[in-house]
Amino acid sequence: MSDIPGEARRGRTRRTHPLVRFLIRRILLAVLMAWGITLVTFVLTNLVPGDPVAANLGQRALGDPAIVAQWRAEHGLDKPLWEQYVLHLQGLVHGDLGTSQQSHRPVSQDLAEFVPATLELAGAAILVSLVLGVAFGVIAALRRDRLSDHALRVLSLIGISVPTFWLALVAFYVFFYRLQLTPGSGRVDAALNGAVPAVSGLQTVDALLAGRWDVFSSAVGHLVTPALVLALYTIGLLTRFTRSAVLEVLGQDYVRAARAKGLPGRVILFRYVLRSALVPIITVAGLAFGSLLSGTVLVEAIFAWPGVGQYAYKSATTLDLPAVMGVGLVVGVVYLVINLIVDVLYGVIDPRVRLQ
Amino acid sequence: MATRSQTAAVLLAGALALAACGSGGGSQTPAASGGGGKTLVIDTSFDLKTADPGRTYEPTGLIVGKAVYETLLTFDGADVTKPVPALAESYELSKDGKILTLKLKKGATFADGSPLTADDVVFSLTRVRDMKGTPSFLLDGVEVAKTDDSTITLTSKAPNPALPYILPNPALGILNSKVAKEHGATTDAQDKAEQYLNSASAGSGPYMIESFNVSSQVTLKANPKYYGTKPAYDKVVIRNVEAATQKLNVQRGDSQIALNLSGDQVTGMPATLQVKKTASANVIFLLANQDSAISKTTTNPKFVEAVRKGVDYAGLLELAGEGSAQAPGVIPSQLLGALPADQAAKRDVEGAKAALAASGVSNPTVKLEYPSELTVNGLSFQPLAERIQANLKEVGITVDLQPAPVTTALDNYRNGKEEMGLWYWGPDYPDPSDYLAFLPGKTVGLRAGWKAGAAKEIEAAGDKAATAIGDDARKAAYVDVQTKLNASGPFVPLIQPGQNIVTAASVTGLEYHPVWTVDVADLGVK
Asked: Family assignment (chain A) (predicted)?
């Protein structure tokens, strides 16, 4: 903030706001990186040894050169690699991700079906992680070296070190099979599947939009265990980072000064400590979301969750190249968007960042 | 330092968040649990691409196809040795085996109520053949014609006694040609009807497609206009579920059928569940390459004999678990012309050592390639390969294991580059003629480097079998082919892994079928 009233405003009229310039720069960078992602996914998927024809046609169809040739032509595999990439890019510009060799549908249509399922799961997990992870971290820091601090630190260590797929298996077995507390596989009960029209693709939101409470409660019930399983790692991570960030801020002179001035503890915590600790927390949360996306592959398999993880696995094992590239692009773009959000949040929280 | 009340507030916030997330979790009851439900839930590991019958060739797709479309002929229960009438009330194969005449049954209607005609049959079968989809080869060289409103003739250039066994394949289901054409169906490669057929049914079967998702779930609903016996379940949900989860789901009552449990997984099932254990129609075999450019060792007939005598078949069966059976020949036990079980090879370590000595190859080392992550009926290839390696070690053969992901391994296998290979063959259709692919110069024969002309006697036996007409003559001919193959061919048939299907006590009438696994319309409620 400027000491002279009005000066900051005058400065703004002459030039674009630093935050806007910062945003434009970041978005341009993101577009450039998105192009980089298309190149990397294309090169990597085409470097895989193995022939997609063998993976996609039956044993007998492979014996018929006419069928094999037609299949290759149909999927553009008879063209040189550079031409395939140019065609791929041209398609992308028009929002066309190609046609899946597995489902024979546009990859974009497949992704539109599977991505929301994963986002719903990962979104629920990140919400739980943020609330619990930050809360636990703050508690641990405030009660440093006391019993609750030790307990939370052990818990976070467990959360970080337990493999997610193992936890998913155990949670499914214990809560669904043994205790019979949670419903089974999928996003809703088998009989309710497709009961509400897909508007957002998020089962919980769509159920609310359709006013179907039975579908909503079924969807939430199905979401609980996989989301908690996924969240455990990020809760552990956030607890640790929040704790150390809060402890560092608590040791700063300005906090001590505030405390000496006799400000209430609540004010100190929320206005001084948490605000300063927020930058490292956001960094970790952004990274954690990335790990959530990769963690969903196995969790989705165990809970029969029809998300992009399952789609990616199936595409990779059947060498469905357009689908693999589509998944790579979407996951890459999600990372980019999260990084963009994190960067923008830095800019909002800490004005010094905008000038860099 | 923070006050106690702040700590409490933060804790409370956390607890509230947890509670909010947890709501609804405990109140769920599994869908259609127990007996008497009108919804049937089937869990299976999806192998599914499409619901368009003309493009279907994957196990899950065939379950859907069987329920939604009807074929001219079918099989009664699990018996695949005799095709029986379905849409055709009778059929007759000409003496030379080239012309199959089928009389259409009267009164069959499609799901939209319109009658099923001879024109629909001609259109559907021609479409499958000329669209060049995966199942096109089923009707290669077969001309489809209508002689009158209720008679269809299928004419083949060469004698084709397998045709009645091919026709029950759900890929040859009859489409409502009017509806299909309206949605882009054509009888050439330009066909565009698949998208439509993935969302709706244009068939005459007992079920219709309610929703279709290739990687998560397919929902079928009973066809209200079905002219035949109404199925017992109003709704059938087929879900994509991993084997480990399938087991828990069916035990808990969340599903009524689990299709993909391995022999290990079905041991110790509670008495409240029914376990159907049958040998699958998949035959796992070893191949020894006959191309001397690939190997000097495996081309030696005495070496192959040593392998054949050196494998511990009983040990492999133990590994494969319940329901599995030794494969006496390449043709699985369910099919016409299968070798009787007592003709299966037996382990003979001394005989194997003698054969190896007679081969003149001392201390041979061979590479064994196989798909490392592939499982057939829940059985993985890795432990099988390791067991074979140990068996042959005792004989004096060193096996160098070369596992590779299936998509990579397939390349070498298809191109005939493997010195030794461990693979399986599932029937494309339940007729022994499908196994002529193992002869010299044919699909699988070439994969073993076995070129046409390499074994005149076996090839002559194969030609005879291909043209034999009549069940008895065909049976004898195929037994002869396999006996000769076992004596001097490059293949060592190993086992048929078990297909274990677990069902709730309430489900009746389940039969394992080698082509469509399970016919959902046959299932009843106790």
From this structure: Belongs to the binding-protein-dependent transport system permease family.
Please report the ipTM that was assigned to this predicted complex.
0.76
Task: Encode pLDDT of B301-318 as tens digits.
Answer: 999 999 999 999 999 999
Please tell me the distance in Å from B399's CA to the nearest CA on chain A: 24
Residues in chain B: 526
- Partner residue facing B6 (CB), from A113, A190, A269: A269
| pLDDT reading at B26 higher than 70 | no
Confirm or reject contact between B524 and chain A (CB < 8 A).
Answer: no
Tell me, yes or no, if B281 comes closer than 8 A to chain A by beta carbon.
no
If you measure CA to CA, which chain B residue comes closest to A140? B7
Q: Does B192 touch chain A (CB under 8 A)?
A: no
C-alpha to C-alpha distance for B475 and B336, rounded to whole angstroms: 6
Q: Say yes or no for a CB contact (<8 Å) between B216 and A310.
A: yes
pLDDT score, position B401: 96
**In DSSP terms, which residues pair with B326 in a beta bridge?**
B495
Which residues from B are below 8 Å from A127, CB to CB? 17
* Residue B278, strand partner residues: B499
- Quick: pLDDT tens for A215-252: 999 999 999 999 999 999 899 999 999 999 889 888 88
Nearest Cα of chain A lies from the Cα of B374 at a distance, in angstroms, of 10
Set of chain B residues whose Cβ sits within 8 Å of the Cβ of A51: 407, 410-411
Q: How confident is the model at residue A256 (pLDDT cuts 50, 70, 90)?
A: confident
Amino acid making up residue A138 = V
**3-state secondary structure (DSSP) of residue A5:** coil
DSSP B402-466: EEE-HHHHHHHHHTT--SEEEEEE--SSSSGGGGGGGSTTSHHHHHTT--TTS-HHHHHHHHHHH
Share of chain B above pLDDT 70, in %: 93
Burial class (CB in 10 A: 0-12, 13-18, 19+), A23: middle
* CB-neighbour burial class of residue B324 (10 A; exposed 0-12, middle 13-18, buried 19+): buried
Q: Where are the alpha helices (DSSP H) in chain A?
A: 7-14, 18-47, 52-56, 59-62, 65-74, 81-93, 107-142, 147-161, 164-171, 203-210, 213-250, 253-261, 265-267, 275-302, 308-317, 321-349, 351-355
B contact test, residue of A189, A204, A208 with most B CBs within 10 A: A189
Burial class (CB in 10 A: 0-12, 13-18, 19+), B101: middle
Interface membership of B7 toward A (CB under 8 Å): yes
pTM of structure: 0.82
Kind plus residue range of the DSSP H or E element containing B483 = helix B471-488
Quote the percentage of chain B above a pLDDT of 90. Answer: 75
- pLDDT (tens digit per residue) in A75-109: 777 888 888 888 888 888 888 888 887 777 889 98
CA distance A160 to chain B (A): 19
* CA A176 to centroid of chain Cα atoms: 26
Please give the residue of chain B at the shortest CA–CA distance from A228. Answer: B21
Give whole-number Cα distances, A337 to A36, A214, A281, A346, B523, in Å. 15, 34, 17, 14, 50
Q: Considering only residues 392 to 411 of chain B, which have any Cβ-Cβ distance to chain A shorter than 8 Å?
A: 405-408, 410-411
- Pairwise CA distance, residues B457 & B524, whole Å: 50
Among B134, B248, B443, beta carbon nearest to A176: B248
Tell me the residue type at B247: K
Q: Which residues of A188-206 are buried (b: 16+ CB within 10 A; e: fewer)?
A: bbbbbbbbbeeeeebbbbb
Q: Minimal Cα distance from B22: which residue of A? A: A224
Q: Which residue of A has its CA nearest to B1?
A: A142
What pLDDT digit, counting tens, does each position of B117-166 carry?
Answer: 999 999 999 999 998 778 888 998 999 999 999 999 999 999 999 999 99
Out of A48, A184, A192, the one facing B249 most closely (by C-beta) is: A184
pLDDT at B4: 43
